[in-house]
Amino acid sequence: MQYKGGMSRGPRLQRGLTLIELMVAALLAIFLVGGILLLHLSGRSTFIDAEQLSRIQENVRFASDYMIRDIRNAGFRDEAVLKVGHELQIRRAYADIDDSDGDGFDELRIRYAGRGHCTEAFDEFRLVENEYSLNANTGELTCRGRTVERDWGGEIQITAQTFSEPVGLVGGLTGIAFQLVCPDGGTACDCDIETDLENACIGVRVAMQFEGMRALDNSGNFDNRSIELAAAFRNVVLDRVNAHAFE
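and the corresponding C-alpha cells:
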C-alpha cells in the first residue's frame, strides 16, 4: 500500500492475545483442573470407603471374638471354691437383659465364676458379673464388671457391689440389642436353673448396628450395617444334658 512520501507499510505485527483466545484458554484450563479434582476426589472417596470397610470388619471380628466368648461363660460355677450363697447367685440369675439407664439400648449382664472380669484379672476364682452396653454418646460397645471375693461371706450380694469404670471395646456402633434364647425357641424365659432348669434360658442373640459404607446418594453420610450373633450358655446346656442323663 502506497502512502504519501513514497513509503509503504507492511502488515502490522499482532501483539498479545485476543479476548476470544483468552476465553478459550481459560475454558480449557477449567476443564483440565476440574478433571484433576474429580480424579482426586474419586480416589479419596474410594480410599475412605476401603478404610471404612476394613474398620467395620475389624470391629465385627473383635466383638464376635471377645464378647461372645465371654457370654458363653455365663452360668459357670466352681462349687469347690465358691461359697454356697455365691454359687446360688449364679444359678438364680446367670444372665439378665435390661435398660436400667433408660437410654433406649439394652444392657446384658452375665454371671459366672472366674479369675477376672472385662477390666481386671484376679489370681483366684470369684463371683463375677459383667455388663455389656452401648455408650450412645461415643458409639462404643463398653464393658464393666463387679465381683464378690471368694473369702467374703456367702450372704454378700453382688448386686450391692460397685461396677468398675467401663472400658470401650469397639467403636462405630449406632445401636445394639440383646435377646434371650429359650429351650422352646421363644424369648420369654428366666435365667434361673435353681428354680426351673427345664425352661431356663440357654443362650442370647446379639444384634449390633455399625456405621457402614458411604451412602450412594453422595450426601456424605454413611449407611448403617447390621450383624447378628448368637452364643449358647454352654454351662447351662451341660446342666440340662447332665440332668436328663441321670433321670
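(Above: one complete record from the training split.) The longest helix spans residues 19-71.
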